[in-house]
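[audit] Reproducing an earlier prediction to check determinism. Same input, same settings, fresh worker. If the tokens differ from the archived copy the diff job will pick it up downstream; this log only records the rerun itself.
[audit] input (264 residues):
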Amino acid sequence: MSNFFEVSTFRQHLSTQWLGQDIRYFETLPSTNTYSKKVKNNEVNHGTLVITDDQTAGRGQYDRSWQGEKGQNLTFSIILRPQNREGFHALTLSCALVLVELLNSIVNHNCACIKWPNDVLLNEKKVAGLLTETVYLGNSLARLIIGIGFNVNQQNFRKDLVSTATSVRLEKGEPVSREILLADLLSRIEYKYRLWQQKQTKLLRRINRNIQGYGRWVTLQVDGKLLSDHYKLIGINETGRLLVLNKEGGLQSYAYEQIRIITD
């Protein structure tokens, strides 16, 4: 199995109408999100895919770095021009849901989940992370960028990550074609994108059921402060805000940037 992403194989398996049809492949790139933000607006399309085999300065949530082994994983960004002007975190979680559903179909049912706000766990270890960013021209949204780092065939992790990170190959026990996997992933994302545009409540229900801690009493950290009370996790609404119930039965909502969920 080649360590280089084979664009021709990917194209053969891609069945989307628009997502990923325009592909920009780089052997090495500091960050697919940074490239996607800096490229001129008239040089990309709705659904452009930017992918690299070696992301040297990948970024995650809270400016954390994303570590990946060259040629073993999927590190890519998709460029979107949505008609909706709100609920972008719901779209990010829609992509996370796609990863969860795909992993459950490949490895084992119900072993993957979404860890708030934008990680995906497989057998309680991190297998993917998402980072959504926006580009504006004046007051107008020029593009929405969703970056995804997905551990596919990596077998060795740094000592400090061994207990918390995993890959599809480690859990499945055999290597996986990154090209076929990505083609399947984009097809599912394109479908979920349509549901998100239509503001389908069934999509939100599906997302919520797959968030770690859903329906349970959890501890919250809001704006960096740990709250003493417990709250029941309800899930997100169509704008992507997280809903929780307090012990008096009152409903509270938070923007995803504000809040972290502690389930242990």
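[audit] rerun output stored. Observation attached for the diff report: Helices lie at 7-13, 32-38, 88-106, 168-172, 178-197, 201-209.
[audit] end
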